[in-house]
Amino acid sequence: PVANATITPGPPAHQVRAGDPVTLRCSVQVGSAPVTFTWLRDGRELAQGPLLELGDIDVGHSGTYQCMATNQLDGHRVFQALSPELALEVTPWGHWGPAVAVNVGRTVLFLVLLLGVIRGCHWWHRLGA
């Protein structure tokens, strides 16, 4: 029977920024093939397969994720192993945070260059006088 289902990256919490690509992997430590995987978000079935590719996520992807591994022995008995819960928290500032930092950096660079030009003009003017 299947046992010890786990999600990578592991529980209890995983914090990511909006816009980050996220892929979760489900695996079992024990279990005869074939093993099927079902993904749950907030207790509802979401997808099938060992990988859950959420792509570039947004705040709507926040929630509690689990995977359920299932196999069947002797054609009759069905076994299931449920992973620990993974609380995925998406912070909404992922897209604009780096853009703001780049624009602030450009503004500071512009001001430094402007001060350098003003100082150079002042020095040049004093030399001519």
UniProtKB/TrEMBL annotation:
<dbReference type="InterPro" id="IPR007110">
    <property type="entry name" value="Ig-like_dom"/>
</dbReference>
<dbReference type="InterPro" id="IPR051275">
    <property type="entry name" value="Cell_adhesion_signaling"/>
</dbReference>
<dbReference type="GO" id="GO:0005911">
    <property type="term" value="C:cell-cell junction"/>
</dbReference>
<keyword id="KW-1015">Disulfide bond</keyword>
<keyword id="KW-0325">Glycoprotein</keyword>
<keyword id="KW-0393">Immunoglobulin domain</keyword>
<keyword id="KW-0812">Transmembrane</keyword>
<dbReference type="InterPro" id="IPR003599">
    <property type="entry name" value="Ig_sub"/>
</dbReference>
<dbReference type="InterPro" id="IPR036179">
    <property type="entry name" value="Ig-like_dom_sf"/>
</dbReference>
<dbReference type="Pfam" id="PF13927">
    <property type="entry name" value="Ig_3"/>
</dbReference>
<keyword id="KW-0472">Membrane</keyword>
<keyword id="KW-1133">Transmembrane helix</keyword>
<feature type="transmembrane region" description="Helical">
    <location>
        <begin position="96"/>
        <end position="118"/>
    </location>
</feature>
<protein>
    <submittedName>
        <fullName>HMCN2 protein</fullName>
    </submittedName>
</protein>
<feature type="domain" description="Ig-like">
    <location>
        <begin position="1"/>
        <end position="83"/>
    </location>
</feature>
<dbReference type="InterPro" id="IPR003598">
    <property type="entry name" value="Ig_sub2"/>
</dbReference>
<dbReference type="GO" id="GO:0050839">
    <property type="term" value="F:cell adhesion molecule binding"/>
</dbReference>
<dbReference type="InterPro" id="IPR013783">
    <property type="entry name" value="Ig-like_fold"/>
</dbReference>
<dbReference type="GO" id="GO:0005886">
    <property type="term" value="C:plasma membrane"/>
</dbReference>
<dbReference type="GO" id="GO:0098609">
    <property type="term" value="P:cell-cell adhesion"/>
</dbReference>
